[in-house]
Amino acid sequence: MRTLKDMSVLITGGGSGIGEGAAKHFASKGAKVTIAGRREEPLQKVKKEIGELCHLVVGDVTQTSDRERMVAEAVTHGDGLETLISNAGNIYRCEVEEFNEEELLKIFHSNVVGGMMLVSECHEFLKETKGCVIFVGSVHTQRAFPNASPYAATKGALESLTGVLAAELGPQGIRVGCVRPGAVITEINVRAGLATQAEAAVRLEGMSNLHALGRIGTVEDIAEAFEYLACSDWVTGNVVTVDGGLGLGVTNE
After folding, report:
1. The domain containing residue 94 runs over which residues?
2. Is residue 58 one of the residues assigned to a domain?
3. Which CATH number do you get for residue 100?
């Protein structure tokens, strides 16, 4: 297996939640991390905490020029590019009769199309390093949560893409994987205006008994799975479930 030492990694949505946790985990093991996101303030905070191994790029994965800049600066910072963690995304919740076509297109652009285009932008560099693409799926593809169909659909698309792109890019030495998290506290519901951070934390903590292991996840739990996929040279096309057993459908008393 490879190690994270000196690995060049681009992480979108790197200013908070799972992206922030991944950046800190990878940098703690010597990786050269480039974090990207739309908000400069949280990116600056993460960069300050990590130090010189971290570079930031303010940009939106739905914008062509921003994606080009993310990749170019990651290649410069890391002297190449070995891993893309396509983590940026948003959530859109509503009932079926309230579907808004513009909002549906926006969430597919941010959660699916932006990541696909980043793979295209990174392709030549990942081919050189025999690198890896990692998507972030969701337990929403395993458990049916009402009013979350737009979000679940985007995550289902990413999980399907994982296998197809792995088959297509495998002959070029590029591996493709996906991590499917369970309940982990992030800022996604806050950014979407669905809850305050405190309300979101209370809601997720209340789901602890739905996990076979009796607790919700941490960003470190997910970062460890990212590391496995990034470093494993003979693993591709897999959706790795890291959900504490949430997808099993159990309820602990």
Report:
1. 8-186+219-240
2. yes
3. 3.40.50.720
Distance separating alpha carbons of residues 87 and 137, to the nearest angstrom: 9
- Rounded-to-integer distance, Cα 186 and Cα 178, Å: 18
On the 0-12 / 13-18 / 19+ scale of CB atoms within 10 A, 252 is exposed
Per-residue three-class SS string for 201-235: HHHHHCCHHHCCCCCCECHHHHHHHHHHHHHCCCC
- Residue 105 token pair: 């297109």
Q: What is the pLDDT of residues 9-65, one digit of tens each?
A: 999 999 999 999 999 999 999 999 999 999 999 999 999 999 999 999 999 999 999
CA distances from 232 to 98, 227, 237 (A): 43, 8, 12
Summary count for the chain: helices (H), strands (E): 9, 7
DSSP letter at 184 equals: B
**pLDDT digit string (tens) for 72-94?**
999 999 999 999 999 999 988 88
